[in-house]
Write a structure and sequence with these properties.
The complex is a heterotrimer of chains A (280), B (336) and C (420).
Chain A lengths: L1 H32 L21 H8 L6 H32 L5 H11 L8 H10 L6 H26 L2 H9 L4 H12 L1 H17 L2 H6 L8 H9 L7 H31 L6
Chain B lengths: L2 H5 L4 H8 L26 H28 L1 E2 L2 H4 L5 E2 L3 H8 L1 H34 L2 H16 L2 H11 L6 H8 L15 H28 L4 H9 L4 H29 L3 H9 L3 H4 L2 H11 L3 H18 L1 H12 L1
Antiparallel strand pairs in B: 1-2
Helix pairs in contact in B: 2-12, 3-16, 5-16, 6-10, 6-12, 7-10, 8-10, 8-13, 10-12, 15-16
Chain C lengths: L1 H17 L14 E7 L5 H14 L4 E7 L4 H8 L8 E5 L3 H5 L11 H4 L6 H6 L1 E2 L2 E2 L1 E7 L1 E6 H6 L8 H14 L17 H6 L5 E4 L2 E4 L4 H17 L11 H7 L4 E5 L2 H5 L17 E4 L14 E7 L6 H11 L2 H9 L3 E2 L12 H10 L11 H6 L2 H10 L4 H16 L2
Parallel strand pairs in C: 1-2, 1-3
Antiparallel strand pairs in C: 3-12, 4-5, 6-12, 6-13, 7-10, 7-11, 8-9
Helix pairs in contact in C: 2-14, 8-10, 17-18
Classes of the chains: A mainly alpha (280), B mainly alpha (336), C alpha+beta (420).
Amino acid sequence: MTRTRLATVAYSAVSIVLFAFFVFPVYWMVNTSLQPNNEIRGSDLHFWPDNLTLRNYETVLFDPGRTPFLPAAGNSLTVTVLTVVIALVFAFLASVAVTRFRFASRRAFIITILVVQMIPGEAMIVSVFRVIDGWHLLNTIAGLTLVYVATVLPFTIWTLRGFVNGVPVELEEAAMIDGCSRAGAFWRVTFPLLAPGLVATGVFGFIQAWNEFIMALVLNARPEMMTLPVWLRTFLVANGTTNWAGLMAGSTLMAIPVIVFFLVVQGRMTSGLVSGAVKG
Amino acid sequence: MTTVDTTGPDLAPSAGEGRRPAPPRPTRAGRPRDPRARRARRGGLTPYALLTPALIVLALIVGWPLVQLVVTSFQEFGRAQVFGAPPAWVWFENYADVLTDPVFHGVLVRSLAFAAACVVTTMLFGTLVALMMTRLTKFFRMLLSIGMLLAWAMPALTATVVWGWMFDTAYGVVNHVLVNWFGLAEYFQHSWLIDPLSFFLVAGLIIVWGAVPFVAFTLYAGLTQVPDEVLEAAQLDGAGGVARFRLIVFPYLKPIFLIVTILQIIWDLRVFTQIFALQDIGGIRALTSTLGVYIYQTSIAGGDFGHGGAIAVITAILLMSISIFYIRHLAKEEEL
Amino acid sequence: MRKLGIAALGAAAALTLAGCASGGEAAPEEGAEIRVWLVGTDTPDAAREYLVETFEEEHPGSTLVIEEQSWDGLVDRLTTSLSGSDSPDVVEVGNTQASAFTSAGAFLDLTEYYDELGGDDLLPGFVEAGSYDGRFYAAPLYSGSRLVFYKKDALAAAGLSVPTTLDEYIANGEALAAANPGKSGIWWPGQDWYNALPYIWENGGEVAVPDGDQWDAQLSSPDSVAGLEQVQQVMTTASRAPKDANETSPEVGFCDGTTLQLSAPSWVKWSILAPADAEAPGCPDQEENLGVYALPGIDGGAAQVFAGGSNVGVSAKSAHPELAVDALKIILSDGFQTIYGENGLVPAKLSLADTLGADEVAQAIAAAAGNAKLTPASPKWADVEAAGILQDLFVEIAQGGDVQALAEAADEEIEAILNS
């Protein structure tokens, strides 16, 4: 008994150390963002913002000399939401095709999906730029969304395929015995069971679209069409002085939506999991 | 229900696969469900119709540029060609140049070594954390999960900027703590990014820090599906911890391991943002570029799209050959 | 070439038609938006306002938007943006980067406007940087010299005076560093390669010289190495700056007292004197203590310093080339250029040199500008910069590496790019 207890205490201690390791950078980001810019460069370090100021946030949000945060956030949010929704719909259709049907080029398709992910995207920047430019979609939400959908689709299809596979086809068949059409059976029985899978893949698409910055840098060069990562980088490579406090405030603002999204999505995932049918 | 369980299904890819080796379970029809017996249908044109939207997008944004990339890799394609001058065909000259270029060799070796180090560390660390999570009380599991969730949610660029700031030469918290708390005076104004090895240590730390949560959550979700009875039975038979893991837990998790490892390999070999942004902060570009960054520097910054294209094609072939065993495994499975 | 030919022809035709239209006339295209890319914060706000107001006054209904870009990654962004249909109309580019774009056909041919834009009054070195194959593509925008800023009290306390030769300057830096442990006698972060050029040039060395149709990199020549060794001496004994940092934020060390001298672009004066509570805080209380002089040469006089600065061109893909050229004319007008002079930057026109004023800084600028020099005039030079070869070289030199071996390796890399 004591051995178990000792082990529990040891594990708890280790988990606290790990917690600190994972959280400290996030904490340090917030801590720095709340201090006056001249203080973080001083010889003393402030382990918490004893001289608390929101000035950096003010600068980041409202300084007329900078590309403003809000339009960039708006662009990022629009592109990300559109990407997630469109990619999920397209990927869902494709994953149904590859799991529930047998057709000539099925294997080729799945392997292509996997292989596509191995091509370094940096090399295709200029080709993609030309394609998007050809349709006059530079500096538009639509152009960037299109590129992001294509970027996340392979992984999304691949992932959803696993989830659709996990729902026994017998469930659908049973529903069909009860008088549903094939499509109806799929829609009523299988689709609800896929909710956790859709959420999980949606999370992936969200992270990708929210974080991507090289394509955004090239495709949406107009300041009013910037996304958040590009906006954040303007701080990092700003001429003259790296404004670390402002940079941390900007980073915090950029990270918050992702954290919030993760927290919201979790509840959904729980209910999906607990429903048990998927778990079997 | 704690955060852990909820993030669990993020094992996205593994969810389906991970379940497959689970013991047969009765279905409504009362017969054991064997996935191999799953009946797929021939649906005429339906599957093609379902694939169309995805195929169109992929053909336009991936397929066509890919063709252009390969074509470019056989041409002398510089900035003048970007602005409309006709390119000259040089066929395999770009490939010959790249393959005999010691700089490329350096980049290649560096990328492979760095990716290998990152993958091994991430998998090892992630597995240990996942195993530990099964032993924690609910409170500590939740605490750890929240910590990992925060790290996981941090965008790669943001994470790099923050770590870069922590390792800042003059005002970074790391140097401060080493000097003032541990009395290591040599770390006063110590530059962490100047020495390539140390640069990659920091870069690796950023990558592992961001990747462990994904691995740990995924494996933990897989672990919760190993039936307790199986573990208990093993314990009664006197199997030790390591043996238990190797003989009983690992086979259950194998598909998850496979897929997570492949993903880590692909991601770590293609790593771009962290290296690119960290080079903005400090370090010697020529000694710290990895494949992705090198392709960018050659093509976009250097204006040499021919060689850049050749490097990209070589990289893609390399990635494919590394994951070929997985592709074959997958292909076999798809034949069922 | 097809595409470019047609575009250029069309543009040229349009320009000939609009050629006689001067500012007062109504704009040929109402409601157009002209996008101007200015890089960095060097161009003062007053100049920006002047440009927007003047343009919109001369072209009622049209608007001019200034989009500020960062120097970092500029070549990357110009490569893509200028080639697209949504190209900015007027773009600033570093003088050493200009030839990468003039040679590629990215800019509109401005030869016929040469006289109208200022003709031989334009800074000759910059006209050269903006020309290719006998055609004029990118006009000078401004030039900025590098000056030495120093703390008067520190120099006095060490019993030193303003140096008159390069050797004396180095000796001063070392003496200051020795007398003030932990402080930089000459602040010099490792990536700052611009500052190293005078040492190479003053010792008779070169970065690269043309050799037929090839380039011959010269960093490992005995003269260059002598200069590089001096650089190493300063970086290791006089400087306490991080060996791998870049040259941003020079005012931080100056204001917290750890930097006693530094060589930097002339506008750094305004960073140092910025309000203490600014976003990038300065130390206005140091105004009295802030001294400035031009870097002395090896035999006295002003050293040959790097003539940093910018060119400005019109995108070949501009949707409104006439309006863009009109905007360019405003940028090169005396009114606009005078604002540069008043803010310590050398205007694009020789005749406006006196707008710099007559104070200590102005004299130092004039002295430095009189002896300024450029990087090798190759279209591929921008790629050498983009590859960060020189940054890397000096980071390694700062760490005390073997200068000869490092210079040879760098020469190889530079030649590989310039002769590719």
